[in-house]
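Side project, low priority. Logging it here so it doesn't get lost.
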Amino acid sequence: MTKEIRIHQTGGPSVMQLENCEAREPGPNELLIRHVAIGVNYIDTYHRSGLYPVPLPSGLGLEASGIVEAMGSEVSGFRTGDRVAYGSGPLGAYAETNIVPAGRVAKLPDEVSHEQAAAIMLKGMTAHYLLKETYPVQRGETILFHAAAGGVGLLVCQWARDLGVTLIGTASTQEKCDLALKMGATHMINYTTEDVVARVRDITNGQGVPVVYDGVGKDTFEMSLDCLKPRGLLASFGNASGPVTGVDLGILTQKGSLYVTRPSLGHYTATDDALAANTADVFDAVARGALTITINQRHALADAVKAHEMLESRQTTGASILIP
């Protein structure tokens, strides 16, 4: 038997239940991984709430690290006992074990711990595709990133500094602003007390920024557009405040022939080769000290409800993990 967090209906955090489930054997190209640490990400709340529908009943979680316990007959390149991690599913990471296609798993370098890997795989890959693929930032540019003190945000702050990019971040408290500044943000805006658009225009001498990375969604959509320079790009990659709906495309013309994209990690790591290249760059950044993983919330697997409650109420900074 193995313990798993399961949902039988969508809804608030309380729909998650810790259950004893039958252990499974890996298929020919799969690995059975016994988890050491499990990542908690905002997308998990979308699966739980039904915003991103999944077949029910279902497990939750896309990211974890652990030890290879068994492998399928056609797997090569791995051995039992290997330290590994994954960050793009399949669903079911909120569990003591999970079965994962071998091509979606990365071996951990010695310099990366299990907790670090569980906290950085999905968030680090997200930071990578946003900064290097969705809009490849260039040294000397100024960018805007909402929720800069969150799990992805703190990584983006550090990576932007490493790339020679000026990052303007937003956050809800002075404590969060100070944390993001410490981790590499150049300017921080407390959106509860300051006018974000006015501050961005002031920092950029009235020009605006070429790109806004927005994981907040509904509450910041128009604000983000107003911070862009003409022909700028809004990368709306999350819905922390709810999804953006009912958009009149004419607004993009009115605000400067703007571009909007709704990217997802799955499309940027759809092939095993793309996934391997992304994770290799993330681990390299960790190994050379460009990225430091900030884990500020640790919960037992049985306390997944509390982890989601804290995440959705914006009580967290940095990364959250579950320990099975």
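Brief comment: Residues 1 and 22 are 5 Å apart (CA to CA).
Revisit when time allows.
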